[in-house]
Amino acid sequence: DQQVKQNSPSLSVQEGRISILNCDYTNSMFDYFLWYKKYPAEGPTFLISISSIKDKNEDGRFTVFLNKSAKHLSLHIVPSQPGDSAVYFCAASYNTDKLIFGTGTRLQVFP
Amino acid sequence: KAGVTQTPRYLIKTRGQQVTLSCSPISGHRSVSWYQQTPGQGLQFLFEYFSETQRNKGNFPGRFSGRQFSNSRSEMNVSTLELGDSALYLCASSLGVGDTYNEQFFGPGTRLTVL
């Protein structure tokens, strides 16, 4: 039972444009959501997070939106840069440090 | 400060063998979690240790076990290896305190190949 889903395995975006990565979840108990970025041969690195009491969190070029009624969150990257090319994982937790991850979306930003 | 370190980085074993992976958390972090990453499955939570006690457990068979030492270093063990155990095993550390989420920092992982 996949509680956190990333239905798009890959996304290709031109440099300078907006990248939108999507994530759906099924467990309404989740109270914290995160995005991680992963390069090959490295561990995931934390990107941005959002608490369930908020609907938006912004950090530079990265913005995460949370729609609790739809059980959906999205990560917007504006403007996209070639260095953003990586696999992005969304993750969720409730009351603990245990993270439930999605299957990842591979973002490719081309010039 | 130094990040999370994992040893070894790469490992090749054969079916039926057992393996032990090691993780050294960031200094001051008391929680260590382990995740398995396989293609198509993403990262799946194995277990979390805090102050030498298993605090959370994922849905993996008993062949997967772990422990944590008094210096917060952690090991995970997989016995009777199967081909499907081939994966990247990631360790993450955090402060582990309080009742809300603590940011986790991941190590580079150990790539296990079972032949």
Descriptive report:
The complex is a heterodimer of chains A (111) and B (115). Chain A is an all-beta fold and 111 residues long. Chain A has strands spanning 4-5, 10-14, 19-25, 32-38, 45-51, 56-59, 62-67, 72-77, 86-93, 100-101, 105-110. In chain A, strands 2, 4, 5, 9, 10 and 11 form a six-stranded mixed sheet that branches. In chain A, strands 1-3-8-7-6 form a five-stranded antiparallel sheet, with no helix packed on it. In chain A, β7 and β8 form a beta hairpin. The termini of chain A are far apart. With 115 residues, chain B is an all-beta fold. Chain B is 0% helix and 52% strand. Chain B contains no helices and eleven strands. Chain B has strands at residues 5-7, 10-13, 19-24, 31-38, 42-50, 53-57, 64-68, 74-78, 87-94, 105-106, 110-114. In chain B, strands 2, 4, 5, 6, 9, 10 and 11 form a seven-stranded mixed sheet that branches. Chain B has a four-stranded antiparallel sheet with strand order 1-3-8-7, with no helix packed on it. The N and C termini of chain B lie far apart (37 Å). The mean pLDDT of chain B is 93. The chains are: A mainly beta (111), B mainly beta (115).
